């Protein structure tokens, strides 16, 4: 019996606190909130589709049969707040981010299975589906985060750009 399998509410509480802290310190909290909401909802729907296919079975936290458990939304929120911080280096590397997603996504599910939080009906098929999905999910999430980046300071104007505007005004 592990906390991952039987005490999911504590993890969701932590995810809410961490997400709130991230938004509190973001340069543009509304932009970061859009990322968190978009990635969390999209990710939970993806996980629900995989669960609905029958490849994954969750022992707890499922409120509606055939959907992902509620606590996965907390994990998606934690993932979303890393996109413009820890994972920023992947933004300009879509091929690398696809490869990272293809390996890290299924690896996280294997870890969850080892903790008893998820069971594979058909391990090989589930891992192929997860790898394929995550090869698209990570680059797409990084693109969304880039569009609504609320953390990274804006780029300064090019040198001399202010001088040209001043000359035109005069």
Automatic annotation (TrEMBL):
Keywords: Membrane, Transmembrane, Transmembrane helix. InterPro entries: DUF2878. It comes from the Bacteria. This is DUF2878 domain-containing protein. Pfam families: DUF2878. The chain crosses the membrane at residues 6-26, 35-58, 70-90, 97-118, 124-145.
């Amino acid at each position: 019996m592990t906390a991952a399998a039987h005490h999911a509410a504590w993890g969701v509480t932590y995810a809410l606190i961490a997400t709130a802290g991230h938004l509190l310190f973001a340069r543009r909290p509304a932009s970061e909130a859009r990322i968190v909401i978009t990635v969390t909802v999209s990710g939970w729907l993806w996980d629900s589709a995989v669960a609905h296919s029958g490849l994954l079975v969750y022992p707890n936290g499922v409120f509606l049969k055939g959907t992902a458990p509620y606590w996965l939304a907390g994990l998606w929120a934690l993932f979303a707040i890393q996109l413009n911080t820890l994972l920023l280096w992947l933004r300009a590397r879509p091929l690398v981010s696809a490869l990272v997603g293809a390996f890290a996504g299924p690896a996280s599910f294997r870890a969850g299975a080892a903790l008893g939080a998820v069971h594979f009906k058909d391990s090989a098929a589930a891992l192929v589906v997860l790898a394929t999905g995550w090869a698209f999910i990570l680059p797409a999430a990084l693109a969304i985060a880039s569009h609504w980046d609320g953390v990274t300071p804006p780029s300064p104007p090019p040198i001399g750009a202010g001088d040209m505007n001043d000359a035109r005004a005069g």
